[in-house]
Amino acid sequence: AKDSRCGIRVYRPEDDHDTARRLALMAGLRVAVDAGTLTVVYQPKVDPATGRVLGAEALVRWQHDGRPVPPDEFIPLAEQARLIGPLTRHVLDTALADCATWRGLGHPLTVAVNLSPDMLTDSALTGQIEQALRRHGMPPEALTLEITENAIMADPTNSRRTLDALHGLGVKLSIDDFGTGHSSLGRLAHLPIHEVKIDKSFVRHIVTDRTRRAVTDAALQLARALDLTVVAEGVEEQDELDYLRRHGCHAIQGYLISKPIPPVEFLTWLTAARAGG
Ligand code: C2E
Ligand code: CA
Ligand code: CA
Ligand code: CA
């Protein structure tokens, strides 16, 4: 046994196991990113007042050894292994191609792609996005980039530079997981953002929990004052949707409407959703 008094960590067999698993996953992920075998699923964003489909969020999926690995597990690994750049470019390219298809079929939708914190300080990002838009003949305003507030606050100066460049390009910027970070509403107000996404941990208890409802109400008020769009994620219950609609939430996402689904299924769902009104 090692001595923890000297600042040496006590040996646990599960540490080796965790490390081995992480290394195996990283190696597998590298292969998947190189081979382009990561897939993308889409979750619709819907106007709660009219039921109209506004767009979809692209979420990456990975099968390793025949099993799905959750993004919450492999995205941090991709970040550590410096694979997040190529991974994001793959998701972006796939999402823009699919969105161009929807639009070509007469569905005027937007698509949202998640950006990891590190991407925000990558000076090549704006140019890559501009090229990807051009490759797929997509107007910049049809693309939303979702960024967490903590990502911005980790390096406010460089993030600001990137956000300004992306804003100049004409793409839309969304603050993801709103309410879970440490930033004040006032600081966000100075950024060139178009949208805030209320985190599902607040939406979950919107009807029963005063504290979480207060965060949602504050977001809706701020958004109205600043001309921002408010999206609520993780909507699972009809009474959550009703509350959000009554309080002027612009868009909702969640299992109540649809789980994230593969592109072919999404097109079928879209056609059925439109036929149903
Ligand atoms: P996120 O961006 O906050 O995405 C929302 C997550 O909530 C997704 O999990 C989605 O499947 C899930 N969700 C949607 N509706 C509901 C609902 O009604 N109830 C519940 N309980 N969950 C719901 P997912 O796909 O597992 O992704 C987890 C996280 O991984 C994402 O959180 C995002 O931070 C990250 N991620 C996913 N795809 C990408 C990607 O392409 N790039 C990057 N950088 N991160 C990604
Ligand atoms: Ca997101
Ligand atoms: Ca989120
Ligand atoms: Ca998240």
UniProtKB/TrEMBL annotation:
<feature type="domain" description="EAL">
    <location>
        <begin position="22"/>
        <end position="274"/>
    </location>
</feature>
<protein>
    <submittedName>
        <fullName>Diguanylate cyclase (GGDEF)-like protein</fullName>
    </submittedName>
</protein>
